[in-house]
Amino acid sequence: MNKEYTGIIVEESLDDNRILNSLDFKNLHISLAENPLDRWHMYQVNVSKEEILELSKHILENWYMHFWAGTDIIAVFKDKTFEFNYDAKDTWTEVLKYGHSLGIPEEQLDFPIQDL
């Protein structure tokens, strides 16, 4: 299976974190929130397009995960997927509009394409 995409998955965004067991991990970062209940566990993974489709079935409402190959990005929400180019900000319009409609803060809709 060609794992052409790198992605970031927040464990707390999943309906069942056991799906993480089947993925190829590259890195893990735990946010620095003082309260353990406020910490995010962010996994950087290498995945195929087929794995992205499977992961999309497990994301909770009002969360997203994103994956990239070069500057091509796939952002996956509970019921919607967007493909756009990181460098062409005019291609971000629809994904930003949708993210805002879910109440996701602007600073969380940045879709970084670098290692954790």
Description:
- The structure is a single chain.
- The protein has 116 residues and is an alpha+beta fold.
- It has one domain (5-108).
- 14% of the residues lie in helices and 32% in strands.
- A six-stranded antiparallel sheet has the order 2-3-1-4-5-6.
- β5 and β6 (81-85) form a beta hairpin.
- The longest helix is centred in the C-terminal third of the chain and has 9 residues, at 93-101.
- The chain is globular and about 35 Å long.
- The two termini are 24 Å apart.
For the biggest β-sheet, the strand order reads 2-3-1-4-5-6
Q: Which stretches are poorly predicted, pLDDT < 50 over at least 5 residues?
A: none
Helix content: 10-25%
Question: Overall mean pLDDT score?
Answer: 94
| Secondary-structure-derived class | alpha+beta
Strand content: 25-35%
Query: Termini distance?
Result: 24 Å
Query: What string gives the helices and strands in order?
Result: EEEHEEEH
User: Which value, in Å, is the CA radius of gyration?
Assistant: 14 Å
Can you count the beta strands?
6
